[in-house]
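Continuing from the previous page...

OK, I double-checked the sequence for Prefoldin subunit 4 against my notes and this is the correct one:
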Amino acid sequence: MQQGAGSEMVVTWEDQLNINRFSNLNNRFHDLEDEIKAAKERNENLEDASNELILTDEEVVRFQIGDVFAHVPREEVEDRIELMKEETAKNLEKLEEEKESVLAQMAELKKVLYAKFKDSINLEED
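Thanks. Re-ran it with the corrected sequence; updated structure tokens here:
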């Protein structure tokens, strides 16, 4: 009599593809979380810069372009910051949508994989 003979699972090619797909989605999910965090920080920094511009009475302010600071009229800087805030907000929205899509795909794969492998597979993070 062999012990554990009934507990051995057969992993098909399709199962392996699903496991790999879940792993890739999980990695993308973590990348998206990092990108979202960075976008939120950028948005906060832009908001802070915008608030600082409101407080200043200078007509020409220093504005960083690449690695250098240039003296730029305050109104132009305000316009640029507003444009940058809009771009960041759009990017953040796109990242949030992709994150939701990735989570939905991961949930579907979890159902499929747990249905077949039950306790033999762990798809939860510690």
